[in-house]
Amino acid sequence: MKAVVFHDIGDIRLEEVDDTPLQDANDAIVRLTASAICGTDLHIIRGTLAGMKAGTILGHEGVGVVEEIGAAVRNLKAGDRVVIPSTIACGVCAYCRAGYYAQCEKANPNGPDAGTAFFGGPASSGPFNGLQAEKARVPFANVGLVKLPPAVNDDQAILISDIFPTGYFAAEMAGITPGHTVAVFGCGPVGQFVIASAKLMGAGRIFAVDRVESRLDMARAQGAEAIDFEAEDPVEVLHDLTGGIGPDRAIDAVGVDAVTAHHGPASRGHREERRKMAEELREIAPDAAPQGEVWKPGDAPAQALFWAVRSLAKAGTLSIVGVYSEKSRLFPIGEAMEKNLTIRMGNCHHRRYIPKLVELVRMGAVDPSEILSQREPLLSAIDAYRAFDERQPGWMKVKLEPALTQTPA
Q1: Rounded CA separation 75/149 (Å)
Q2: Residues 6+ apart with CB under 8 A from 211
Q3: Tell me, what DSSP letter sits at residue 167?
Q4: Per residue in 51-62, is it b (16+ CB within 10 Å) or e — as a string?
Q5: In contact, 40 and 116? CB cutoff 8 Å
Q6: CA–CA separation, 31 vs 3, rounded Å?
Q7: Exposure b/e, 141-177, CB count within 10 A at least 16 = b
Q8: Cα 61 from Cα 132, distance rounded (Å)
Q9: How many Å apart are CA 183 and CA 174, to the nearest integer?
Q10: Which residues pair with 3 in a beta bridge?
């Protein structure tokens, strides 16, 4: 079968690989009808999320049809159409039973303290082969697959695999209630779903901070108030627009590949802070291998955190779903403490949210496919990766379709 395979930082290839057989009675084999490219995949290729094993299939978002099930899988049959949660969970341990699927004690073969297990990730996460392929093996399939109703199409379902749940999780962690003022740092795919989720939770005002005009345009289309950090200082603007108070809630949907402002008022000052972020970047990604403008790490790994803490109202809440390296150290903890901020963070418990989001989509309460900007054949995955990595205008979220043989017009 064909798959997108990681070989090294800055080196991914579309290759022919062996089909994966069932390995356990709880497994299922899924023929994928859709996958997608995520910002976490870019962290891996840029080298800001280290520890990938050469030969690992990339991708952690998937929709498909069950082809084969193990003897212990009792709630599925061949032919069922399913969405695959990005994180892997057993459904049996105490953490899974409490809804903390990302902290499953059994899924990660590195042991109960190893952290979240997910598809297409580094050695510390399993590793498990990913979903940017024609077929995939899904462990703990009775929990790790969610059946889809006919009313939810693949364009919608692929966005329920990871980024819609992650955005909803971020908004829930922030404790958004009706009337709250919310600032979202990063208007990529997850940031767009944070905005959508904040609206579902009744946020009074939503501010969207980014520098890519097409992303800010999409945020505006959702009703958010756009702030271009290359043209203005986001902290100053957020204070000005909230009567000097700041937003009640802030969400970091950027993570380790954040960039700082290179123009305008936000580019001035904080020189020592920028120097420390440059030092941290060298420690986080010592083997980065950019090729021109692709696979280039962000130049200010803690920038979103500093802006979020400084902009928040006193006694506000910061929710962090942007991915950070284990080597990340910079955080303005003193400033956060002086403001009595609450800080919540973590990996999304996808299986906890997916059934609810599937039902919201089935009912027509929300259409996640509005975020989908490109549909590309799996055969064009490498070119699609490059365009997404460069943040080319209009490249918001890329769906990969194994069955397509040519790029749609």
Answers
A1: 15
A2: 228, 229, 230, 259, 261
A3: H
A4: ebeeebbbbbbb
A5: no
A6: 12
A7: bbbbbbebeeebebbbbbbbbbbbbbbbbbbbbbebe
A8: 8
A9: 11
A10: 15, 133
Which residue bears the tokens 């920028």? Answer: 274
The alpha carbon of 200 is separated from its chain's Cα centroid by a whole number of angstroms, namely 19
Which amino acid does the sequence have at 81?
R
The torsion of the CA quartet 286, 289, 294, 298, rounded to 10 degrees, works out to 10
Distance CA 145, CA 133 (A): 17
Residue whose structure tokens are 């209630």 = 177
pLDDT value, residue 409: 39
- Side chain identity at residue 230, one-letter code: E
The separation between the first and the last C-alpha atoms of the chain, rounded to the nearest angstrom, is 25
CA 302/CA 277 separation, integer angstroms? 7
Could you list the mean pLDDT of each consecutive 10-residue stretch along the chain, which spans 409 residues? 97 95 97 97 96 97 98 97 98 97 97 95 96 98 97 98 98 98 97 98 98 96 98 98 98 97 94 95 95 94 98 98 96 98 98 98 96 94 94 90 64
Residue 232, classified by CB atoms within 10 Å of its CB into exposed (0-12), middle (13-18) or buried (19+), is: middle
In three-state secondary structure terms, 333 is: helix
Token readout for 370 is 């509005």
Contacts of 294 (CB under 8 A, 6+ apart): 386, 389, 390
- So what's the pLDDT on residue 341? 98
Strand order in the sheet with 181-185: 225-228, 205-210, 181-185, 249-252, 317-320, 342-345
Within 10 Å of residue 114's Cβ, how many Cβ atoms? 15
Which pLDDT score is estimated for 393? 83
Contacts of 301 (CB under 8 A, 6+ apart): 48, 256, 257, 258, 277, 280, 281, 284, 324, 325, 328, 330
What is the Cα–Cα distance from 85 to 160, expressed in whole angstroms? 8
Query: What pLDDT was estimated at residue 405?
Result: 53
Name the token pair of 403: 């069955």
Closest Cα to residue 353, out of 89, 72, 120? 89
Q: In sequence order, which residues have a C-beta less than 8 Å from that of residue 64 and are 6 or more positions away?
A: 30, 31, 32, 33, 34, 81, 82, 84, 136
Residue 58 is given by DSSP the state P
